[in-house]
Amino acid sequence: MENGVSPQPPPPAQESPAAPELETALSGTESAGAAATALQRHTCYDLLPVSYKVIVFDTSLPVKKALAALLQHGVQSAPLWDSNSMRFAGMLTDFINLIRHYYTNTSYDNALEEIEQLQISGLREIQQKMGLLRPRNIAIHPMQTLYEASKLLLKDHLHRLPLVDRVGNQETIVSVVTQYKILKYLAANAPAVTKLDTQLRDLGIGTFENLATATASTPLIEVLNLFIERKISAVPIVDEKGFVLDVYEKYDVLMLAREGAFYDLEMPVSEALVKRAPDFEGIHTCTMSDTLGQVLETIRRMPVHRFIVVEDNTLKGVVSLSDLLSYLINH
Ligand code: AMP
């Protein structure tokens, strides 16, 4: 985050019609390299729509209420505000480790009682003891470029990055920028990127070997362990022939945490999928012959968390948003 007095931000750009600079940057070359140039020319502030909401939790809020609010607003995590120091206090995230902590360290009754009373600040203390908190709270100033935000997201393996303004000693949480929002902004405002016509099979984007998968009967705890051990955000659920049946996502864990279902992590993942949040947006699949442009066009049109690559419904790979962003800023 930048220090000192921040410049007065310009009025936010609309997603449409296309921002002229982005058009110019891309229409001439139709190369992915132009996407990086475009991201260098625009700030995080440009991502903000005219009207939007920011969900911020005070660190004294009970964790249970925070979980309910996250689910109600369909977001995976939210920035925290410490009203004692009047400062941004990190992101509320990492419920998987909380669930694993209670599963291994305490009885169900104790866990229920503790969770009932746990404040976010208490959760942060547990996370700190477990060595799960980052040494510093990562944020970016709204006037830094989308390129800088992308680099930071990728370097720290983050899916979202809070925008925090600072004037003198006073901080304001402005919004949260995500990998999805950056890709969508690019796809919506730079039509040329949606015309990039190289097929995924020729681009080397995504993971196609040593995939972490589970079957419907895999115990949930094994899937949660895969999230942590493999540093991934989704595990495809396949049958014995490799047919994709579903995908268990990190977001699904929120529902589990709210329901207090952390006592039964031996349940098959298929059972946990039934508890999935009602606003589940579905799974996006693509094939190796889809082009980069087609994939970005899908991102422009609808919320996407990742693409599951299939051939005749059989799992071939995973193309995550971080894979796409990394390709676009490095080529
Ligand atoms: P993500 O957490 O979705 O940003 O993915 C991080 C990295 O892990 C990306 O390079 C993905 O291609 C890869 N990845 C995502 N899901 C899986 C999976 N189930 N098995 C193996 N690799 C994965």
TrEMBL record:
<keyword id="KW-0677">Repeat</keyword>
<dbReference type="InterPro" id="IPR046342">
    <property type="entry name" value="CBS_dom_sf"/>
</dbReference>
<feature type="domain" description="CBS">
    <location>
        <begin position="133"/>
        <end position="193"/>
    </location>
</feature>
<dbReference type="GO" id="GO:0019901">
    <property type="term" value="F:protein kinase binding"/>
</dbReference>
<dbReference type="InterPro" id="IPR050511">
    <property type="entry name" value="AMPK_gamma/SDS23_families"/>
</dbReference>
<dbReference type="GO" id="GO:0005737">
    <property type="term" value="C:cytoplasm"/>
</dbReference>
<dbReference type="GO" id="GO:0031588">
    <property type="term" value="C:nucleotide-activated protein kinase complex"/>
</dbReference>
<feature type="domain" description="CBS">
    <location>
        <begin position="276"/>
        <end position="331"/>
    </location>
</feature>
<dbReference type="Pfam" id="PF00571">
    <property type="entry name" value="CBS"/>
</dbReference>
<protein>
    <recommendedName>
        <fullName>CBS domain-containing protein</fullName>
    </recommendedName>
</protein>
<feature type="region of interest" description="Disordered">
    <location>
        <begin position="1"/>
        <end position="27"/>
    </location>
</feature>
<feature type="domain" description="CBS">
    <location>
        <begin position="205"/>
        <end position="265"/>
    </location>
</feature>
<keyword id="KW-0129">CBS domain</keyword>
<dbReference type="GO" id="GO:0019887">
    <property type="term" value="F:protein kinase regulator activity"/>
</dbReference>
<dbReference type="InterPro" id="IPR000644">
    <property type="entry name" value="CBS_dom"/>
</dbReference>
<feature type="compositionally biased region" description="Low complexity">
    <location>
        <begin position="15"/>
        <end position="27"/>
    </location>
</feature>
<dbReference type="GO" id="GO:0005634">
    <property type="term" value="C:nucleus"/>
</dbReference>
<dbReference type="GO" id="GO:0016208">
    <property type="term" value="F:AMP binding"/>
</dbReference>
<comment type="similarity">
    <text>Belongs to the 5'-AMP-activated protein kinase gamma subunit family.</text>
</comment>
